[in-house]
Each structure stands twice: as structure tokens, then as C-alpha cells.
Specification:
Pfam families: HAD_2. GO terms for molecular function: phosphatase activity. The chain has 259 residues and is an alpha/beta fold. The protein has 2 domains: 170 residues, Rossmann fold; 64 residues, Orthogonal Bundle (DNA polymerase, domain 1). Helix content is 36%, strand content 8%. Helix 9 links the parallel strand 4 and strand 5. The chain is globular, with a radius of gyration of 18 Å.
């Protein structure tokens, strides 16, 4: 159980946390690799989670140096197959109930995801009424221009804290600084710590902690079977499902009867 903490806002990752997109990623990837007589194992899959699409593709194909598939070819085939399936991706257990609850109690919420805007729309439009409409467009995507706030326009992906910091500052109006220097370190103790990040991937856990926020980690069950890597930031709470999240442990209103 986490320490009692008065949480004032929440930021959610998308893939593998809110929607069952990881299953589609796996099915599509193995459909592509089957033409080359190879298969992505869970150990390989675990190393892809939380990476940008090009980094993940490079990591994947590094395990199969003998096949002729290039990164651009793989991404092109993957996108074509995935785009057919995104409008059917289901929500993961507990997410609809949690978002409805936070929205009802006026807890500010936002999404910060590495997915591209076009893909975000394909993945979520069929769940607009049930889940995503409650965010009131407070969403940061990986190709969002608003992320280009540091380093001459450079976008720093996870495990850098940029995405969560920008979401808190630009989407939710929190004075959390820019994620660097003494300003951010000071604000971490006052404002960033009032936020909680929900994540499924280890780079996302690192990102949330480096942003100075609390982190609830809801990993794939297979990931829970592996030893937690040494030397990286740890979450404040680990859950097997969002159905196990208890709002009052975080100073949030308890679920109403029937939820």
C-alpha cells in the first residue's frame, strides 16, 4: 500500500495501460515475421515496450540478423496490418471505471503517449463516449508539436520525463517547470509530487519518477514474472490490474457504490 498522499491530478499512458494494444502489436509482428520463419518471443517483446517505434523496430530486428526485412519495410507492413485492427481494440479492465470516477469528481486528467496522433484517433475513436471523451482533448502524442520545448526542437522520449511534464504543464496548467535545472528540482517537491502517473512499461515508470510524480505501474502479467531491473527507478505501487486501484489510498474520493 502506498503512503497516503493527496493527489491532485493524474496522467495516463495509452498502450498496454488503457487499451489492449500490446496484443495487437504481438499478433501483427508475428504475422510479419512468420513469412521469414521466425517469431517474437516474450523476452524480445519485453525489450520493446516503452520504446519509440523506430527504436523498437531496430531492437526487434537485431534478434534476426539473418532475415532480409529492413526497419522501413517492417514498419510499413506493421502499420498497414495494425490500422485494420485499431478500431476494434478493447479497453483493459478497470480503466473505464477509473476514468469515469475521476471525471465525476473533477480530478484533472490527461494522456501522455508516444503514439502518433493519427494512430491515437484510430485506437480511441470507438471508445470516445465510454472513456476518451472525458479527457476533453487533454492529450499529448509523440508527434505533437507541443513536445518540442527543449533542445532546439528535439523530442525526448521515455525514459526522459518530457511527455509527462508537458502534459502536466500544458494540458493541466500545473507549474512544473521544464524538466531541467534548479527550477524543476524545486517544483518537484511542491507540485510534481501532487501528480500520479499510470504506466505499464518500465521506461514509462522511469519517465514518471524523473518528472517527480508518483507512479502506479500496471504491467503485463508476464513482465511481473521477471525480476525488477536493478539500478532504475521503482514505482510507488504495482498492480496486476487497474481494477485493483483503490482511490482513497491516494487521497482521492472512494468509488461510489456499484462501481
Amino acid at each position: 500500500m502506498p503512503n497516503q498522499s493527496s493527489i491532485e491530478y493524474a496522467i495516463f499512458n495509452l498502450d498496454g495501460l488503457m487499451i489492449d494494444s500490446e496484443r495487437i502489436y504481438t499478433e501483427v509482428t508475428n504475422q510479419i515475421l512468420a513469412d521469414y520463419g521466425v517469431q517474437m518471443t516474450w523476452d524480445i517483446k519485453a525489450g520493446l515496450m516503452g520504446k519509440s517505434e523506430k527504436e523498437a523496430a531496430a531492437h526487434l530486428l537485431s534478434f534476426f540478423p539473418g532475415i532480409s526485412l529492413t526497419i522501413p519495410e517492417y514498419l510499413q507492413k506493421r502499420d498497414a496490418l495494425q490500422n485494420l485492427l485499431w478500431p476494434t481494440v478493447p479497453p483493459l479492465p478497470g480503466i473505464a471505471c477509473l476514468i469515469k470516477h475521476l471525471h465525476k469528481h473533477n480530478v484533472p486528467i490527461a494522456i501522455s503517449t508516444g503514439t502518433r496522433w493519427a494512430n491515437f484517433q484510430m485506437k480511441t475513436s470507438h471508445l470516445e463516449q465510454e472513456i476518451f471523451g472525458m479527457f476533453n482533448n487533454k492529450v499529448i502524442c509523440g508527434d505533437d508539436d507541443i513536445l518540442k520545448v527543449k533542445g532546439g526542437g528535439k523530442i525526448n522520449g521515455k525514459p526522459a520525463p518530457d511527455g509527462f511534464i508537458v502534459a502536466a504543464r500544458e494540458m493541466l496548467g500545473r507549474n512544473v517547470g521544464k524538466g531541467e535545472g534548479n527550477e524543476h528540482r524545486t517544483l518537484i517537491g511542491r507540485i510534481s509530487v501532487k501528480g500520479v502517473v499510470f504506466e505499464d512499461a518500465l521506461p514509462g515508470v522511469q519517465s514518471g519518477k524523473r518528472a517527480g510524480m508518483k507512479v502506479v505501474w500496471v504491467p503485463d502479467p508476464n513482465l511481473l514474472k521477471l525480476p525488477y531491473p536493478k539500478g532504475i527507478e521503482k514505482p510507488d505501487q504495482t498492480l496486476s490490474s487497474l481494477e485493483a486501484f483503490v482511490p482513497e489510498q491516494w487521497g482521492l474520493p472512494p468509488y461510489d457504490d456499484g462501481l
